[in-house]
Records
---
Amino acid sequence: MEPDIFILLLAIPLVSGALLTVLGEREWAPNLNIIASGGTFLASVLLTADIVAHGPRFALGEQFFIDSMNVFFVTLTAFVGMTTSIFSGPYMKNEREHGRLSAPRLRLYKSMFQMFMFTMLVALTTNNMGILWVAMEAATLTTVLLVSLYRTPASLEAAWKYFILCGVGIAQALFGTILLYFAAERVLGETGNALLWTHLVDVKSQLEPHIMALSFIFLLVGYGTKVGLAPLHNWLPDAHAEGPTPVSAVLSGLLLNVALYAILRCKVLADGAVSPDFAGNLMMGFGLLTLLMAAFFLGRQKDIKRMFAYSSIEHMGLITFAFGMGGAVANYAGFLHMTMHSLTKSAIFFAVGHATQKTGTQLIADIRGLIHINPLIGWSLMLGTLAILGMPPFGVFASEFMILTHAMKHYPWTTPILLTALGVAFAQIFGKVQPMVFGETHAKPLPHAPAITPVFLHLALVLMIGLYIPPYLTRWFHEAARMLG
Amino acid sequence: MSTIPLSAQLINLCASVILLLAFAMLAQRRVMQLINLFALQGLVLCLSTLVVAVTTKQHHLYWSAGLTLLLKALLLPWILHRLVRKLYVKWDIESLVNVPTTMLVGVVLVMIAFNVAQPISLLSQTISRGTLGIALAVVMLAFLMMITRTKAIPQVVGFLAMENGLFLAATSATYGMPMVVELGIALDVLVGVIILGVFFFQIRDQFDSLDIRNMERLKDN
């Protein structure tokens, strides 16, 4: 029974989200959260095996469409969701014992976490560009209350900014979607199918270029707000810094990816309708601007989570730039970098979460000598930082190297900008993390032993891909890159 | 010169009223009146959708007109009224600086919107295509309102007015989006307002007021 796997993939987070709401915060609630996320991951693996064996397919009529491009994101999303739920078990217990969170808040956290996973998976698998919008907006809604979970003035401010900025951004995307529908309707007629991506792709060369150009600009700015592209990135550092750490990990590792995925789907359509360089040039421009801006803002941060949030913006800029260049190599590198960034950045946030709990502060200046407090946490932060900065032999090095060499070959003028940004980012982050890990210390033990496994699991994967990419993964990335054209 | 059919005139009239209401909201200081203006805008939006539905015999437009009436003219204003009463901000008056300047900026935005929309309107075959410019103008005015307001509730009303403008754009360019998408958007808006309702209480408890200016501490120092 093939369709069952897909239904299961969406049903598990939805049902467990409802269950966690109804049953409330119990002793076993964290375990239920982990089991549900594990089940979702298992379903995603089975679905992937199915797609690899039998090729793309529809589900529930034509409303959902799974091909090698989105199944790759589905697996990544489900995997990071699972490790985050493992990480958040002891983390949230510690937060509760420190008196920062109460039982009702923990219930809210777990149910919203599962609902967030549900919206992400719907956004990834839907075939309908309108439903994609609905799911992206729903993802914002589920996370707004999570960002303000601590109810401190700063977290409320961050959540408000997040809601308003993303709301305005997503409104632009809705206008873009309306224009897209308008262009499609002239070709496909007034059927409910005119927003289905698979139908749109078939007629993409017939879509009216002027409308499509305008539509893509609105969609890029709209979804770009969620990716964290400059100049509408302001919500991102605040939301990452003030929300609980597991939320920062999924925002950085998943939400940004899914928003970028939405842009990629739109880019395929715009490429077919307008001249092929139009969408690519726009993305390269926005990508470079974002990369450069983030690199120079990194150094001014005093809060460790804010700093890594800016690092996420930087990497999103680089990935957007890679997809903007287009072509098989750059797309391949873009997908690889997205995967590496997701895994590495969520691992870093896990490590940072433990570190801030140990030291009781998020201020960079007050976190010192993690290596003496807990060598595992210290090393995981150090290794994660080295990985995200693109040091060999980690996988980020491979993808950054590919992006850089491709840019040198085809767009030589971008090389100084890229190298400056990467260099500045390296100096800033390394300079700040080094004393945090190796300095002198004063800290206290935690009541619940931290879950270090997810951190090393992620880093091991990043390391493995840096040294050796399994052939099926290569094939998969190639397939996805080819679909992007 | 061919005369414009009555239905098209009605649609244009409705759209102009919506634009007028958008300007009225821009200048309205009292929070209760602001919500009433928003409800009125929803009602006119519903009427205009209904006229399009009757003229073009698009059945799903009856549904979206009904949905608009229920959600934007009744349910959302009711929720907002309740919130305002419960938060004791019924008599809140905002000191808007420079209403004339804001209005002038609004006029400029309307001109920009018309210029952007014109090439698209020319390509459209719908009876209501003339209103696309107005729809975009309403979106931009709502955006301006969100920028100029300092209280939380008026900002949210601005956000919802922006959604009204987008809805108008959808009906004027394409006779509305597919039903499943419209339902999804309506659900998002409703859930969004409910979540914001919860959020308002959190803000008030923390800051003792709904003034957004309290929330300008997070900066890249």
---
Amino acid sequence: MTSSLGPWFDYTVNGLVVGNIYALLAVGLALIYGVSHLINFAHGSVYMAGAYIGWLCITYLGTPLPVTLAAVVIGCGFIGYLIERVGLRPLQNAPRIAPLLATIGIGLVLDQVAQLLFTPDPRGLPLQLPAWRIQIGDGTIGALDLLIAGIGLFSALLLYVFLRFTKLGWAVRATALDRDAAQQCGVDVNRVNSVVFAIAAALGGVSGFLVGMYYNSIDPNMGFQAGLKGIIAQMIGGMGNVPGAIAGSLLLGLTESYGIAIFGTSYRNLFAFVVMLLVLVLKPNGIFSRGRSLPPEPLTGTFIAPSAPVRIPPMLVAALAIIALALPLVVRNGYVLQTLGLGWLYAVLAISLTLVAGTAGMISLGHAGLLAIGAYASALLAIDFHLPVAATVAAAGIITAILGTLIIFPAFRLRGHYVTIATLGVGEIVTLTILNWDSLTHGPIGLSGIPPLSAFGMPLISGTWVYEIALGALIILALTQWRLLGSHLGRTLRAIRDDDVAARSYGIALDRYKSLAFGVAGFSAGIAGALMAHIFSYVNHETFTSQASLLALTMVILGGLGNVAGAILGAIALVSLPELFRVLADYRMLIYGVALLLLIRFRPQGLLGTV
Amino acid sequence: MIALRRRELLLGAMAAGLAAPAFAQSKDPILIGVSGPLTGQYAQYGAQWKKGFDLALDEINASGGINGRPLAYVFEDTQSDPRQTVTVARKFVADERIVVEVGDFSSAASMAASPIYQAAQMVQFGFTNSHPDFTKGGDFIWSNAVNQKDEMPLLADFLRDLGLKKIAVLHLNSDWGRTAKDLLVEAIKQRGGEVVGSEAYLADEKDFRSAIVRLRGTNPDSIALISYYPDGAQLTRQIRQAGITLPIVAGGSIYSPKFLELGGADVNGVLTTVPFFPDDPRPLVQKFVKSFEAKFSAEPDAYNGRAYDTIILLAGVMRQFGTDRKAIKDGLAKIKDVPSVVYGKVTFDTETRRVANPLVSRIEVKNGKWAAYEGGKVTR
Amino acid sequence: MTDAILKLDRINSFYGPIQVHFDLTIEIGRGQIVCQLGGNASGKSTTMKVILGLLKPRSGEVFLDGQPITGLSTPQIIRRGVGSVPEARRLFGAMTVRENVLMGAYTRSDRPEINTDYERMMTLFPRLRERTNQAAGTLSGGEQQMVAMARALMGRPRVLCMDEPTMGLSPLFVDHVLELIQAVNREGVTVFMVEQNASLALRIADYGYVLQTGRIALSGPARDLLHDPRIRDAYLGGQAA
């Protein structure tokens, strides 16, 4: 069965075929980053939209391929235009975290709308091409592989001609290089932005359509993972670098394919994220750049909204804490107590994140990774070593503090968007490591039979206990953090956030302070994760996903970055609101997405303000 | 210790109360709490459940409900996320109108909520939870999903009967897929076969070319899939596109009309074993298929069938043993040979709290349709 | 001054809570070279931003030829005949010299005349002709200043706003740039420049304004200011005046 060329040839072809698909996404992302300095997390959703527009045309109108492609280009181009015009342009003067979060919110809304319109069931997208295939090595490639490669090359060429030889193309390049100067040449940068979003979205939509045909399968959730791969690919190629994005995509495809060849299929994504982190740390401008220095642009100081925080008198805080502690005396409903108890645990996660994201200025999208470490540490200690739960929870805090700081350490020199992407990668790596490290974590089987929280041999599983233990942990950790922030440490961390160059010039050892922040944050998050493990009694690699990280970040932003009270408020609000929306079942996530967008638009500094 | 003794006491009390099922006078509906995904990545399965539930309720309530009271369900969306199943569990156990819980979809999410149902002494009835540990959560945790411990040996029997000895396995890298794979490997070995290679893939992957190249290098006689239908269809397509014509034998979870739509011509010849399939000539199945098609103008799939079966089964238990939470638990242990669309007849093994000796049919894709396997040539 | 091509009328502008300009009024006479002087944080660069529409004043108006332009966007203001040579040049570093210069004609669509103007620029700045296909970012500071001026002039501005045109240049180039500014002015373009180097700027200017913490401290014909002892104090003795 083996050919003369051997399997490596096949792995190479496979890598290029997949890389080819990533490239169509990465190019659009690179264009947008180039012009708007924005990582567009909604890009994956446009890709999904392209697939559905194509499906609608073929199924209901019976259009031939060229017409379908044209419809996808126009439809997605328009969606891209709308995203820029309605979703992002009003945020032009907002701090730069706002548009980033807005793209996440827009992606969420688009996915949910698609799910409501088309149901979540995957659909077939019939191939509109002849079914012949060419034998290459031991595998085959079909007409669609060639079409995808052709469209990839053609759009790259078209883009090149556009950027090089048209007036608007020049304006796009000029705006990417220097927005203000372009304006002073009379360039309407808003229009340029619209054009760029439309082009990028059209490309993304076409790739979604082609990929849908390629796999004969489309579904409303297909975009997230694809968008992520596009982001990784353009990161490897260099943010905002269009030819780099194409090369980065092919490299990512090859890396994954060779990774599978050497280590096995389940290592694929682990491989992709590790490569991304390596590139970020060693060559943050992409593997084609010369220098190691970061572009000067994304400074955290402008990344986060400055505002005056709402002051809450300590007496009021104490009163609220006592009321909260006494609540189970009045409320007996286990459901309400469980919901609030989970809310308190999320509040622990949120104060942990608000310390690194708000106070130290490292917006993390991988905080759920810390939860996972804490949960597994405590559960494994309890199951394998039969230690008392109180001891394992405390140990989990310490283990998470150390491990969390160590794995995020390489990302300390990054700033702005780069931190966000790096932490996202770290979160995924934690999850994928748990999945693949069978001998320790039981791999995909997960950990079942985790002993419940207990004291003196008495299991504490009622809603009241869940509530009180979570609240107790929160009060202790929040007080500790609040004291810490009022000290020299808090001021130093804020100085680093606002201007790390200046902070460094005052002789502040950045790494030490950032480590300290991550250590404290890791401890809190580890405790929260451990408590969750004992409450759920079962955890696996999917318990703490990037969705949980995103939720935590939303809580922190809702409350106001760096604001401890705000984080708690945000957590309680975002855990209880979806419960209130339960009657709306199908619309729940949509409402959540819209709420997020409105918040970013009208109160980017959060309810209680940034500290 | 204390908890255990109390449980024994309660069991005794229930046994005493069973002889006289209570006939409720009220016309308020009896509620089943459903915990399942309506949004998120598993949303399609929740949508399929609903269809099966609705059809079952139509029939039950048209024939007098539960001793005069209508039966209904409350569907709480959990996205099959363990954090939310726990919360929903608290909600259900606190709601006195709810007499039994059904779901959740994934074993991970269901097992997180098990301690709450167990502590509240309310049956958690998982009908998709094939994880062997699921029902170990306590004596209130029941399932009529095919236990992988039952299904995988039957699949291995099929492979043996087909004369396939060297098997390469592709499986979903989840608790479900991994457990099934381990059981399948064991069963194949017991039957004198050999597993020459196995690859685990993630749920959100779409490209399997390189995994397939790896497996091809092991020179198998056949490829076994442990997949759901979207990824199963994808794998089959890509295996065929790689020019591999080996027989493909898959676990029953790929069974769905959607498998055919998503796989196209490439899935012809795929073999599987399922407890339920619509062409099954049994009259019960044909009646179900007809009414399902009349109501939804679509052919039912495995999830529709299981959802339907579950509600019919629980309604039967309620009619016979009463609607008390504990009565339901005890009734499940007592029922014998209840007619079932999925299994033919259901009796629970009171030790494992799963269906004893489930029935399966061997089927294959023939000319783009699911059809009973009638022996003969197995390659495409 | 009766014939003002550009007029700032009682401008009050802010960065967040911090006020930069206090009732700032400046008139720029047609065909003249007018300079605005001031030390660090005097608000002189902000004046440029206000004129170019990059910063909206909280109150006050900017008039171009008697028409208010205060609410307009930057590209709209450019289209009405204001050219800008921004502080530190701000060239499009990865684009070629030719592309940079032609970007200046972005608002125009008269192809043949653009080509004529481009040729004129190459005559005015002969050094650039040798470097037309070189990336602008690789040029020396003086050459970059030429590109920036050529780029601004390609828009055929009536008023050319220059923010610190001599900053960071070698003394040799400073003189050259000043000569170029005069040459441009002789062709009928009004020049408004912001400068920190007062004596240099006043040497070529017709009129000058001295800005101190957002207010006009002093103004008058350049010749008078050049000899005004208060100017010398301000620039030799720091902020004391």
---
Amino acid sequence: MKVKLLINQRPRVVDVEPDEYLLDTLRRHDVLSVKRGCDAASCGVCTVLIDGKPTLSCSVLSARLEGKAITTVEGEREEVTRFYTYFGDEGADQCGFCNPGLALTAISMKRTFDNPSEDDIRRYIVANLCRCSGYVAQVRAIKRYLEESS
Amino acid sequence: MKIASLYHPKDVNDALRVSRESKDTVVFGGGAWLKLSPRRVERAVLLDTLNLAEIRVHDDAVVIGAMCTLRSMETHEAILDIGQGILVDALEQIMGVGLRNIATIGGSVMGKYGFSDILPVLLALEASLTFAEAKEMSLESFMASKKRMNDVLLEVSIPRKKAIGYFKKVATTPLDFSLLNVTVVKTDTRITVVLGSRPGGAMGHDVTEYINGANDIDKAVKRAVESVLEAIPLGQNVRATKAYREQLAKTYVRRGLLEVMRDES
């Protein structure tokens, strides 16, 4: 079946199976920043923005997204670059596998919250798992990004 | 879950008609847990375009459309007001924002999931359901029924009354399912304790008679806790033993009761 999607501001008509998940659709169309982690809605590395809301692409059927705007880090280059500056400065970057999902979650926070506390940040990123870090540097980086780039 | 085809109904009646055509046809909520199901369905009926995602605030109730996401609920002011924020407290502890932007209240209710953190709270708040055909039904009757409800859920209605609430999710990690969850809600007329993740479906017990008018609060709470453990069976699964769940229930039901009484004073 055919579905019209707005992938990173570009209108696309994609052919999908009824039980195809967005993660598979995106990767099949070379949107490779979106990673496959647990593939069971638990790790957050497949996070994309659907109409601006962080959503797990491993658990959304593509066929349900007719007309929706899908944004990945490829479609947020300027904002993601800004975010990564803080990430690098704070030593929050290690293997990088969780970065795309975390970056989009942080960007969504920036557009949703006014002055989030450290607790707000920790609650918001609770399902973006990182197996390298202990989240301390990441939370510090996100806090600075939200405070200084707003 | 394997899905052979998808169906976008014209309206609710169309959804109801098609969902009854075959046992291999399933009405979908948000679909957050599709990957956990090994089932194969011939046709999935999607309610996405039927305008069932609204939250309406009336004088006596907050009415939530079945396709409203858990995240939309937790960020709505009227939901924050319910039971001094108990519903939002429970919602915020369900996985992460990315999943709560997918999972819907209708899917959570119709799934009758034993691990649900939202059903116990809705039960304690005396929520009611509106179906396409069966019309009104209390959530309590729905949960108690063993029969499969072959209907389409349209709305969940939560009474707007003065209530004080306590919710505790006990889990190994924030992203894991609960070992046990405990809800205590005190309204002007009753005090209800609901246990979820027993590991079966959530069950409630009215403890008003033990608490109201009691002179010795400690004794009254102790008797109320004992009555909860007698009335609501707890069991064992891979997450916890029966004995451990009972210890958790003793501790958190007691804390919950003391908290809702303290909040009142």
---
Amino acid sequence: MSSLDNLYRSVIMDHYQSPRNKGSLENPDLTIQLKNPTCGDRITLYMKLENGKINDARFEGEGCSISMSSASMMTQAIKGLEYNQALDLADRFSKMLLGEEVEKEDFEDLEALQGVHQFPARIKCATLAWKAMEKGIKDHDHNHEHEHHDHDQK
Amino acid sequence: MISQEIRKQFPILNQRVNGHPLVYLDNAATVKKRIQVIEATDNYYRNINSNVQRVVHKLITWDTDTYEGAREKVRAFISANSTEEIIFTSGTTASLNLVAQSYGRSYLKKGDEIVITYMEHHSNLIPWQQVAKATGATLKYIPMQQNGTMKLENIKATITKNTKLVAMTQVSNVLGTINPIQEVAKLAHDVGAVIVVDGAQSVPHIKIDVQALDIDFLAFSGHKMGGPTGIGVLYGKKQLLEKMEPVEFGGEMIDVVELYDSTWKELPWKFEGGTPIIAGAVGLGAAIDFIQSIGMEEIEKHETALVNNTLEKMGAIEGVSIYGPMKERSGLITFNIDGVHSHDVATVLDTEGIAVRAGHHCAQPLMNWLNVSATARVSFYLYNTDEEIDIFIKGLKKTKEYFGHVFS
């Protein structure tokens, strides 16, 4: 496989052309907008949360095949995960892009993005959606700590 | 064949990227350095290296000669009246910010208008947004036509008696448009306004005579004309610079310092607080020597031939959109391949050893105007060849085919 074919695996192109979970969510618990200021890619990630889990996730945005397919794959992968599981997945995904050996058993489609490792200029494309998710969960967790477990606040 | 002999003088061009000879087509971002420029900065650190003006030992005279010698080379290069009008900065961004912070904040007030264009690089836009916020002046945009040029009548209609400053790039880093600076300067002066010209993309590629154009301020960068990074220039008319306050205070820029008050050195040094990038100025001087030995007319001629050749060949490829005017443009072409994001274009070309730019080119308002999120760009310099254009065109076709294939 040429390095190009390794980057643009068919599963990536499939997610790019037919993105999963594209669009907005009604009454999301979290809406995170993030841009890659150096290249102009942007994403809006919507998430619904319940009992410490990500119940639903959808995204809107504009960008290259790598950033958009990664966002599409991520929304699939994080649905139903507990916060710390989602953060752990994001961590392992980032490490894979940096060329580190990580546990990939639960990666499914995400593994196709491994080829990005050979294109350092594109790593930020692949991590954009994940950064949005991490930011959302971490900010939410932080705010939650200050709510003194007031469950009525939504 | 001007290029083949010249190419040898730029050592970085002689390398392979991803198994292919480097085809460097990102000269609007930065121009590669000639060996003599590298040697000039190297020589400065090896054999000269002392501070400017402060000390009294043997090396200092050489040093001041070289730093001030570079200033004289810049003066001659842009046909300024005096070296008092040549201020060394860290680059175009710093030069434009200097004008905005010093002139803009002192001489603009509520109700005044700053006239600007949709095609400005962020560094000739944000400083004026900040001046407008601080002073209550308003920003006014000159309407632009679909082909990325501005009609003189629209420029004329936008500049009014309330206009105090016109900020305009001479050459758009995205569209390649060459703006009619001389005419705009006259329109600005007719209403008593000053014109601030972003010359980052023009000074390296077009012959500039600041007195003939009657420009009040001109900002440009050393590295985009083959000099080192970290050195740039602000040209300003003497009578304007004289009435402006420095924005950086401290070492090197003072005359007398007392407990509660101080006075400044004369022009241009009052604007050069702190130890400057001396080696950068020396390297810039070497780059100017080279440009002068070739002649700006030759550089312009060569780049125009390259851009016309490329436009013709790109125009023949179906599904390639080209932005900006098709005639009378500078040596750069911004484009998109239908259905393929510019990052993906740049990545495929990179695997062929071809370096192009992809993204928003620090011109987000212009990207919005064009209704695109990102574009790819090729830009030329003296050392580029027709053979490289052919390699690029082949790469472009390959990119189109590749994505046509993976999408099918």
